[in-house]
Amino acid sequence: MKIQAVKGTRDFYPAEMARHNWIVDGWKAASLRNGFEEYDGPIFEYLKMYQVKSGDEIVEQLFSLQDRGGRDLAIRPEITPTLARMVNQRINALPRPIKWFSVPRLCRAERPQKGRLREFFQWNIDIIGEDRPEADAEVIFTTVDYLRSIGLTSQDVRAKISSRRLLAAVLKRIGIPADDLDSLYALLDKKPKLPAETFEALLAERVPDAEQAGRISEFMSLDSVDRVEEFIAGDEEGLNALTELKVAFAALELMGIADYCAFDPSIVRGLAYYTGVVFEVHDVGGELRAICGGGRYDNLLRDFGGPSVAATGMGMGDAVLEILLREKGLLDEQVPKRQLAYFVACADRAFSKEMYSITAAIRSRGRSANFSYKLGGLGKQLKTASAQNASTCIIIGQEYLDKRELIVKDMSTGEQTVVPAEAFLAGLKGD
Ligand code: HAM
């Protein structure tokens, strides 16, 4: 019986693993240099945790299960609810603002397609306990800081920024009842992903008044904050939201990444818990799905039974990022090749015992070393050493038996020197 991998999952052979590790290492380095600390949680939680505030889309995509005690559980589709639960548990002991990051493996029962899998990794950064819009800007800065560090320029990617709070005020002004907002957000979030006519038809179904629907579409097509005031017409909540957004943009300017950022009111976000500034990073070509998304979620900790504490953050998956990097030719050249410090070869099969002991001696001094079980001729072993990217090859020949000397071959220059074995091993200790 031949068993296939489950649709929408990936196998990480060493070449894929090397790419994956390079991406994760970059995420971690960017988090640390921006002052975030790492955390993690369990890969499954109570099902109800995702039913509270994540929104219908996530709930439909849950991999859920029942344990033997009949408890309803779900594999995590995101880590933000876990973060809220963990922070709530220690809210009084944790110095604020809490700046944490994580790289969880997540599962969503999505229909697999380009950049969308059923199992993926997602870099998360979150700032909890800071309500200033500068914190939203810091999340966006950290995201851009990473993307820039791997060679993506402002010609390649754009952080599209808007505000749920502003959108709520605009919708209220247009005359949409507050109770309809959540379901309307889910539809508006789909605007950029749907053909224009399909979106207009769905909007007309939800908002039958053509003038109201037209105003919504008009607002969502704005390309600068200058005309926003027209849509809020003095509404205090709307003006406050607009001020917040402007402060965030000013901070992004100060942080030197204004060229990566743009106001885009069509960014709504699919998750239900966002309350303020929201953003997504997209490829400028507009071919791919969002590289990442996030925003402010000031009510989630309270909704999970904790105190009311401000929070903002983002999540970036590995799938779209990898596609974009490959398309831009930025992936394979940056992923480090397999590295091996030493390859131990034998000039003759008779020295295989020494090969084992010298390899072990090098490894026990903390250096990487490998050898070939098959041995074969010296030429073949040197080929294997090259294939494994060994920097140096140690050749054991007759001089080892005669004088305890090793041939040390620099694999980049081809230069060979003869070194007493004892001196060679002693030299490994120091540096
Ligand atoms: P999200 O928009 O659901 O937000 O996901 C964020 C990113 O995760 C997406 O832009 C995409 O890169 C990646 N992603 C999501 N679903 C998939 C999938 N099925 N396959 C591959 N990649 C995927 C959240 O998850 C929020 N919890 C982020 C957040 C953190 N907001 C505040 N803090």
What's the SSE blueprint?
Blueprint: H1 14-33, E1 37-38, E2 44-46, H2 48-53, H3 56-60, E3 64-66, E4 72-75, H4 80-89, E5 98-102, E6 105-107, E7 119-128, H5 133-149, E8 157-163, H6 164-174, H7 181-189, H8 196-206, H9 210-220, H10 228-232, H11 236-254, E9 261-263, E10 277-283, E11 292-296, H12 300-303, E12 311-317, H13 318-327, E13 340-346, H14 352-364, E14 369-371, H15 378-387, E15 390-396, H16 398-403, E16 405-410, E17 416-420, H17 421-430
Parallel strand pairs: 1-5, 8-9, 13-14, 13-15
Antiparallel strand pairs: 2-4, 3-4, 5-7, 6-7, 7-12, 8-10, 10-11, 11-12, 15-16, 16-17
The chain binds histidyl-adenosine monophosphate.
Residues 78, 80, 108, 110, 116-117, 120, 122, 124, 126, 270-271, 290-294, 297, 313-317, 319-320 line the site of histidyl-adenosine monophosphate.
Q: What's the overall geometry?
A: elongated
> Which small-molecule species are bound to the chains here?
histidyl-adenosine monophosphate
Strand content: 15-25%
> What summary fits the major beta sheet?
9 strands, mixed
Q: Please give the share of residues in helix.
A: 40-55%
The computed structural class is alpha+beta
Report mean pLDDT, rounded to a whole number. Answer: 94
Q: Say how many strands there are.
A: 17
- Name the poorly predicted regions: none
As a whole number of angstroms, the C-alpha radius of gyration is 28 Å
In whole angstroms, the N-to-C terminal distance is: 52 Å
Total DSSP helices? 17
